[in-house]
Structure to design on (763 residues):
């Protein structure tokens, strides 16, 4: 009998119950007991739901109040010293201090760093370790939740983050080697495994997703040492769990590890099945990840069944388990909640609950159980309707893409020539000042949007409101003396959603939330079809704003790679193809802005770097199409039109040539927090075009002084030529309050003036 097993379920709840409970607790409205009760109720509800959906083996300890990597650090007592007193006095307060910092009652602790979980949009807390690090069990969350499940009638498989991945995902604050801590960590893992064994766990799922990355010899050796050590402990059987890619050159290593089962991702990397079957010793369990845990489409069950049969032929029926490709953390909970989606589109989709149902059908079919044929046929019909649908396939899009030539992704003239024309066109001072686009989205702005959406504010009244906000913003920028203005982006909810809502080929859910970090969730658009722009999207607002002022008004767009990265994308064509379609739609928008008299246009690409593939050898292919897509957007305009781009939270060192290849006339980047260190890459590369290294950290309510900004700018000026340097904040201002913004921008303009005065003096 083939088992359906799940690797992890979304924690946030079908209606973001966990988010709301956390926020009430943080505000002091709910007690810790109330929060814990909500969490326990959610866990019970999730186990129930998974069981009903058809899963035989349910995970436990996949739940987290904030993040599973933080849970792991906490569990092994890897607490930086500064949180210890608080955590000893009040564990929950200590835990949340690590997650999000605290600033109350005389305590002022910053949060631990947060970073992206592999190539997902989930962010984990980066544990801080040091050479003298000791580990010990603090609490017993995995055991407690295993027992909690048992008491509720569910026999579960506890999930742990494996020791080597835990270390590789951590950082040391003293520059020491993380893996040198392995020997100290392993006995504590062994102790935990022993406890789980004693509690009655037959299997433990041990996640080692770093096994799909490029690993150096030291990391490989660490895996061998770790699993040899853990083999000695009295313990449950281990399912070594890998996902997000192929094992590739790590497969030999994996096959030699002393574990009883292996999970592989056959959605991202179906081609690895043969090699895995060859390498994986007979008699051990293989868990086949056949349903995509990262996207929302119904699975091609016939294809999955072929893979499953093939695998079964090698490992035998009892040793094959069926599973999603990875934990279902990255998809929304339940499609059934979407009442507004039309039936056809809905029939193509599958969220966490439905995915377990798909696995059930697969297992039943594999075992030849009666009744499996009906659902298989139904699934075939759904896939066929999607394949044939006229809302998915718009022949004009393919035709247009086919006519694109190399020249369409190249500006007419090289930067040096464009610059001369742009200087004439705009007559900007040296060190021109600008902002990144959005201005504070006040309570009022959000309220007006919500009322408009609810039908309580008429279109006309909403427009009038937005016009007034925009005008106020323009007047403010004029008054403080900014050189290149923006309209403020008041009409936008989210930088991707705003465009997706206006493009054909995008759909939106009502409750399709996915955890981004902690209590923060995003609701990614679903790109289901060929992308078409029925009409201009931003021209009206840019034109209106330009009509208010003599100064240049910068048009503001979200770039194609960012739209792609922050959406659920089609699985029936390459990402690069979808990206080119978005690029074409945006190219039309850029051209329309130019025709409407907007001479400076910014195409934001904050997500370019996060799209990088996990394996280095796939980077250049990605960068080629990503950069090309940006250039398709940007290259339809005349030489005198100035194209800006903006990127944030990025390291540029290893992709600087790709950034330069975007050939934007001006790029603004985040640098203030690193005190301009991020500029190094641009300097070493001799980046030729305009560049605005952010001088105001908009992620903090702190207002930087004029002197601080002057100092940062002098640092930048020392390594860039005067014609290159722009003066701007790090990122958009939408999360800031007006008071701080006003103050900080006035000082920023003053800082630019001082720099200009330096120059005048030198001349
Ligand atoms: N133009 C956007 C804004 O100002 C850019 C946001 C971003 O980089 N994430 O909000
Ligand atoms: Zn930004």
């Amino acid at each position: 009998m083939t088992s359906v097993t799940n690797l992890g379920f979304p924690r946030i709840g079908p209606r973001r119950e966990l988010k709301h409970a956390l926020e009430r607790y943080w505000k002091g409205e709910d007690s810790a007991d109330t929060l814990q009760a909500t969490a326990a109720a959610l866990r019970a509800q999730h186990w129930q739901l998974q069981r009903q959906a058809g899963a035989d083996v349910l995970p436990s300890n996949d739940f987290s109040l904030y993040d599973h990597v933080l849970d792991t650090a906490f569990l092994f007592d890897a607490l930086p010293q500064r949180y210890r007193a608080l955590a000893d006095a009040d564990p929950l307060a200590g835990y949340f201090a690590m997650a999000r910092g605290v600033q109350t009652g005389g305590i002022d602790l910053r949060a631990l760093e947060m970073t992206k979980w592999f190539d997902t949009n989930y962010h984990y807390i980066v544990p801080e370790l040091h050479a003298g690090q000791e580990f010990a069990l603090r609490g017993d969350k995995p055991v407690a939740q295993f027992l909690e499940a048992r008491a509720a009638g569910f026999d579960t498989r506890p999930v742990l983050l494996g020791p080597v991945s835990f270390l590789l995902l951590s950082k040391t604050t003293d520059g020491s080697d993380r893996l040198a801590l392995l020997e100290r960590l392993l006995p504590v893992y062994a102790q935990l495994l022993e406890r789980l064994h004693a509690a009655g766990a037959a299997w433990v799922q041990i996640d080692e997703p770093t096994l799909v990355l490029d690993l150096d010899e030291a990391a490989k050796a660490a895996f061998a040492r770790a699993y040899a050590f853990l083999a000695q402990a009295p313990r449950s059987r281990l399912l070594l769990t890998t996902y997000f890619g192929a094992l590739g050159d790590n497969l030999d290593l994996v096959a030699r590890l002393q574990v009883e089962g292996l999970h592989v991702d056959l959605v991202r990397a179906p081609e690895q099945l043969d090699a895995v079957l060859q390498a994986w010793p007979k008699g051990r369990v293989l868990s086949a990840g056949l349903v995509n845990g990262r996207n929302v489409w119904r699975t091609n069950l016939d294809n999955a069944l072929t893979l499953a049969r093939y695998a079964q032929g090698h490992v035998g029926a009892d040793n094959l388990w069926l599973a999603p490709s990875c934990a279902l953390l990255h998809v929304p909970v339940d499609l059934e909640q979407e009442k507004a989606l039309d039936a056809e589109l809905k029939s193509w989709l599958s969220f966490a609950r439905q995915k377990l149902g798909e696995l059930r059908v697969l297992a039943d079919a594999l075992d030849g159980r009666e009744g499996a044929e009906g659902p298989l046929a139904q699934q075939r019909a759904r896939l066929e309707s999607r394949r044939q649908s006229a809302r998915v396939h718009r022949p004009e899009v393919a035709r247009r893409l086919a006519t694109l030539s190399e020249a369409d992704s190249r500006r007419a003239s090289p930067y040096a020539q464009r610059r001369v024309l742009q200087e004439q066109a705009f007559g900007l001072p040296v060190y021109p000042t600008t902002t990144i686009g959005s201005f504070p989205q006040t309570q009022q702005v959000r309220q007006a949007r919500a009322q408009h959406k609810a039908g309580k504010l008429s279109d006309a009244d909403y427009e009038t409101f937005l016009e007034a906000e925009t005008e106020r913003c323009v007047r403010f920028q004029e008054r403080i003396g900014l050189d290149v203005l923006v309209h403020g982006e008041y009409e936008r909810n989210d930088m991707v959603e705003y465009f997706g809502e206006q493009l054909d080929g995008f759909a939106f859910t009502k409750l399709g939330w996915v955890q981004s970090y902690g209590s923060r969730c995003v609701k990614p658009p679903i790109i289901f079809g060929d992308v078409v722009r029925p009409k201009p999207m931003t021209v009206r607002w840019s034109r209106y704003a330009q009509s208010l002022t003599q100064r240049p008004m910068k048009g503001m767009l979200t770039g194609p790679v960012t739209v792609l990265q922050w959406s659920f994308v089609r699985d029936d064509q390459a990402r690069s193809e979808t990206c080119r379609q978005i690029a074409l739609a945006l190219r039309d928008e850029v051209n329309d802005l130019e025709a409407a008299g907007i001479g400076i246009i910014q195409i934001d690409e904050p997500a370019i770097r996060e799209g990088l593939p996990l394996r280095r050898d796939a980077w250049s292919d990605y960068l080629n199409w990503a950069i090309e897509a940006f250039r398709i957007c940007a290259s339809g305009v005349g030489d005198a039109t100035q194209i800006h781009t903006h990127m944030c939270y990025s390291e540029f060192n290893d992709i600087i040539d790709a950034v330069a290849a975007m050939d934007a006339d001006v790029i603004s980047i985040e640098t203030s927090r690193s005190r301009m260190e991020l500029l190094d890459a641009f300097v070493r590369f001799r980046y030729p075009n305009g560049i605005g290294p952010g001088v105001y950290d908009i992620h903090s309510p702190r207002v930087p002084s004029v002197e601080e900004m002057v100092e940062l700018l002098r640092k930048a000026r020392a390594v860039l030529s005067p014609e290159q340097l722009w003066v701007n904040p790090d990122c958009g201002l939408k999360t800031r309050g007006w008071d701080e913004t006003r103050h900080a921008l006035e000082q920023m303009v003053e800082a630019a003036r001082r720099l200009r005065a330096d120059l005048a003096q030198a001349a």
